[in-house]
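From the shared-data thread, chain only:
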Amino acid sequence: VVCLVAYHVFFMLFVWSYWKTIFTLPMNPSKEFHLSYSDKESLEREPRGESQQEVLRRAAKDLPIYTRTMSGAIRYCDRCHLVKPDRCHHCSVCDKCILKMDHHCPWVNNCVGFSNYKFFLLFLAYSLLYCLFIAATDLQYFIKFWTNGLPDTQAKFHIMFLFFAAAMFSVSLSSLFGYHCWLVSKNKSTLEVFRAPIFRHRTDKNGFSLGFSKNLRQVFGDEKKYWLLPVFSSLGDGCSFPTCLVNQDPEQASTPGGLNSTSKNENHLFPAKPLRDSQSHLLTDTPSWSETAAKAEKGKVGMSNPALTMENET
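Structure, as tokens:
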């Protein structure tokens, strides 16, 4: 009876997570990141150069973005006509920009991003548990099959096929699930592993990592009772994210209140633009920055504001 109940629980959670992963529409950047009609016209009229740079700088001036392209330009999508939020990428399959895009998954025929990343993780977890449960309960009959302890019926083939299928899927799912657990612990996406985010003055592969606990809360939320259920509980709006190492823009004189370092011996530089209310509360606890003061000082040597040439990236 216990095995039967567990079987149905795993199966229902698996189907629920899979359904939410498939049919949850990926979130797109909000209207404030889209260029206005006048800015679009200015961008189209002006030749590539300082004029276009000024249009993009003006459009991104009040936006909570800290990342740049490899050449130091504002991340701009010429297909969606918007300034890309941090961790946002254009999906060539969906033909639109996806917030915190991880990858486009052909198995669910959907982009995995901010809106459904938690559902995707739970889908992998419950799929793995379901396969392990099937393999474990079928193991005794599989052993009897090899020791000729089963009656000579057509059920022998089904027992053998079921065990091998469950075992093979368990191996593949465990590697994939383990990889995404590592991504969550480091607060990275699959795209950011292959191309580290570039901030205003340098590349930092761990720029969005706030420590294991806070990284976990960004995906699963603050309410632990919702962690194992396929209901949306991720923190934030997908357009802005707290960072552990974003150097202050030289054009901005001061750092906003509430983001100053709590230690006199540390000289960390924090985001010069305000985070959204839904994200900034992650930075109100005891700071867990991993960079030392020496490294921060080293990073400031020779820095200058790079020329913001427009560069399109997907």
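The CA atoms of residues 21 and 116 lie 6 Å apart.
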